[in-house]
Amino acid sequence: MSRTLSIALLICVVAPAFGQGIAPGGPGNGVVTMSVPADVSATVGGTVSIPISVSSTDNTVNFFVADASCDGTTVAFTSIDPSAGLQQHIADNGLPPNCDIIIYPNLANIFMLPFVPYDITQYGAEYFIVNLDVLTTQPGTTDVTFQLMVGNNPQPVTTTITIDAVGDPSFMRGDVNNDASCNISDAVSLLGFLFSSGSTPQCLDGADVNDDGSITIADPVRLLSGLFGTAPPVDEGCLVDTIATDALDCVASSCP
Question: CA 97 to CA 95: how far, in whole Å?
Answer without folding.
Answer: 6
